[in-house]
Fold:
Amino acid sequence: MRADSNPLLILPVENQVRELDSKLLFGCFAVEKGFEVLIGSRPYVNFAMTKLRPGIFVAKSMRRRSALMLKIIQNLGHRIVAWDEESLVRFQSAEYNQWRFSNETFAPIEHLFAWGKDDARMFREYEGLGRTAVHITGNPRMDLLRPEFRTIFEKEVSEIKEKFGSFVLINTNFSFVNSYVSDLNLLIGGNRGAASVVSRTGEGMSNEFARGMFVHQERIADSFVSLISKIGSEKRGIKFILRPHPSENHSFWQEMVSEFPNIEMIHRGNVVPWILASTCLLHNGCTTAVEAAVLGKPAITYQTVQSESYDYHLPNGLSLVAKCELEAIELIEKLVQASSHHNSSVNKGLLQEHLSASEGLFASERILQILASEIDLSHRHSSFSRLKRAPAYLMGAARTALKKINSLRKGHRNSKAYHDHRFPRVTSIQLQEKVAKLDKTLGRFASVKINQFSENLFIMKRDK
Structure:
């Protein structure tokens, strides 16, 4: 690394509506700390790795399938740290670790930043953790939910309310059974029967567990279809906005709700202003319910079927429970009638066990303090070898070429259509406008400037 250059921080974004705003905030704090930040679409970040000077790469998960890319990144001379975007909301089964983690993936990760005490405990108990240091810092996604940042959403909340009035937000989380790419459903070929095969989505799960999870999610999805049809037909006086998971096939829901004038399927932007603009949330196992709890909005979990092994207990535990259509409709009507007079009552102890940095230093600041004190970028990592760099460069270039070929294949998991579904086109001007809102709130980011680096990638740095 050049002696006169700022350390480089690399922030890949997989699902734009879920991660971009919080990683942009993290990037602002990083620039304030003296970093230069590369932020953008995760596949395009991976494409660019062979062209970047050594920096700190922030991984977003420890899936087995990421092991090869992380090894390439490490051998190119980059340092690797991580936080898990999805470990906050997880099912309670021994199968979880073998599905989400692998020894090979943890090996190159030096530091891991946990959402809270529960998250940290899970990682520390994982037998393949190795030398990875686990820190309880909180997650930048929760920074945006703190009172300090509520004002940045005011204009959008006002616009949503003006356009849609009072509405109930419905969030779905059925990518296991309704994936945008059919081959990424948990089971492919023969559905739930013996002829079905566990897809790459379920790599690490046993066949028995994957089939059980598929059937459980399918039953929940079917119950939502039935309930949505009922409220669409019988509750025309209540407005509903349906927001599917970023990885779901949205056309399924679009077609389903098209016959109901009181239900619209909308999936754009960060979910926070939609939560704030709504009267309540209807879901089953969605991270959105955790966000709603932090924001003080009531949530209903619709659970016609329940499972100790397959359910996502944190978001459901922070919600009012409806076990049948009648209970769901009664709760919806009660919350709609109460509207702004309703005080959301959540399990504060449960929140505190799972989320850190709700006050004091932001999670972003806590993470950056550790990076600054624990990683010296003026020296290579002890495992770095110039002999490894050349093969890593060739492997990275070959991987990029293959991914770009696959991006032209219709229906492929690497297709351009699926990429654009999860990471719609965004400009440096739009990102700069977001930074301006963050600066207006904290008064700390006026010097942060964003420029296009390449397709779907941007550089954040201090304007000198």
Summary: The chain is about 45% helix and 15% strand. The first helix runs from residue 16 to 32. The CA atoms of residues 91 and 310 lie 5 Å apart. The mean pLDDT is 93.
